[in-house]
Amino acid sequence: MGKVVGAKRLRARAWARRWASVIGIVERLAQAIRGRRALAVPRRCAENPCMPSFPATAHKPAQRSADAKRLARRLAQLRRVFDLDAIARQPADAPLITSYYHQNFHPYRRYHSAEGAMHMALNPGGRFDREGYLGQAQRLEALWAAQPPADVLELAFGKGFNLEYLAPRWPGVRFSGIDLTPRNVRHAQSRPALAGVALSRADMHALPFEAGSFDCVFCVEGFCHATDVPRALAEQARVLRPGGLFVLFDGYRERAVETMSAEEALAVTVVEKSMAVDAFQHVETLVGQAAAAGLQLVSNESLAAAVMPNFRRLDRMASLFLLVPPLTRRWLGGRSAERGRNLAAAALGRWTVSMGLQGYREMVWRKGDGGA
Ligand SMILES: C[S@@+](CC[C@H](N)C(=O)[O-])C[C@H]1O[C@@H](n2cnc3c(N)ncnc32)[C@H](O)[C@@H]1O
């Protein structure tokens, strides 16, 4: 009897593995086809570093009920694979964050960006193009054009994608970077293009730098992990010189969770927790906290429309994984919880952003003369 059950289990596991590899092959084929098409598309970002601005995604009333239905369907599909309430309850502290990025070192490369970008591509043209991964760095360059900085710090550099692009293009700038995850730090330190950049393992809440060390501190999709936002902001204000810029590209809550329906609030929380984020910052709250840290808001621009092509791409991939829930459950069963569950974020992010519950923004602050 035991042997029969064991054999059945082995067969099911083999099926699950085959299913995952079929999904991988389909997605890679699709990527190859899209990649070939992308070559024919003009390289917007490279040609135009001062990219146009985008309005926040408008959520028309007529669309609202259709969106709500779609979100409910997505949640129902996900429930067949995950215990969503358990995901929503999981706290995201520093050990969980480092474990998440350690576990997802290869999946990010495989399903997101082989080039090492760990952030959303900016595609203002409405179609996914890997060139868009350079979008955040190019927007920074546009900010620096009038007054080039001398010392720049990237918080949470991940695999070093942004610094690898910026460092050779700005030879007169001294670049530094910190990240919490040892595996990412070791990887970035081994990249030849980053040999001249001072990279270290550190926490954005306690930076190993003297006060007034930098003209610009920037962070791409890492500040959402801050577990004590006022403290992290005070730390950035401390290491900035008076007049220095603090620039964030990140996901935010566009609405207070208290104003959302139960399903909307669950979807928003699952998106965040399944990416090891305790809770995205609420835009207005963050602006108030930054002011208290001595940082004056210079600009606050929604890039939600520009990240939608990347969200649609992730959504398509997630749809394939959700086609046959028992197989996906089997496949996930052999993986760590952190590794598998960002499939939930991929399956929901398109909807939470298009419904205006969450957003994606570039926010720029300047440290005032009387700053912390
Ligand atoms: C989504 S990745 C973004 C990486 C990179 N900025 C990019 O654009 O590709 C987030 C990074 O934040 C780092 N991180 C999370 N919490 C941190 C903290 N408290 N201090 C420093 N880095 C942190 C993680 O280790 C991870 O590498």
Description:
- This protein is of the alpha/beta class and 372 residues long.
- It has 15 helices and 7 strands.
- It has helices spanning 2-40, 44-47, 61-79, 84-89, 94-103, 105-112, 135-144, 161-169, 182-189, 229-239, 262-273, 283-292, 304-321, 325-333, 337-354, and strands spanning 151-155, 174-179, 198-201, 214-220, 240-253, 295-302, 358-367.
- Strands 3-2-1-4-5-7-6 form a 7-stranded mixed β-sheet, with helices on both faces.
- Helix 9 links the parallel strand 2 (174-179) and strand 3.
- Helix 13 crosses helix 15.
- It is globular.
- S-adenosylmethionine (SAM) binds at residues 97, 101, 117-119, 155-158, 161-162, 178-181, 184, 203-205, 220-222, 225.
List keywords for this structure.
single chain; 372 residues; alpha/beta; Rossmann fold; seven-stranded mixed beta sheet; 15% strand; globular; binds S-adenosylmethionine
The 3D shape can be described as: globular
DSSP strand tally: 7
Q: What's the order of the H and E elements? A: HHHHHHHEHEHEEHEHHEHHHE
For the largest beta-sheet, the strand count, sense and barrel status come to: 7 strands, mixed
Head-to-tail CA distance between termini: 70 Å
Bound molecules: S-adenosylmethionine
Question: Number of helical runs?
Answer: 15
Q: Name the average pLDDT.
A: 86
**In CATH, what is the class?**
Alpha Beta
Q: CATH topology, what is it called?
A: Rossmann fold
How much strand content do the residues show? 5-15%
Strand order of the largest sheet: 3-2-1-4-5-7-6
Radius of gyration: 21 Å
- Low-confidence sequence ranges: 32-58
CATH homologous superfamily title: Vaccinia Virus protein VP39
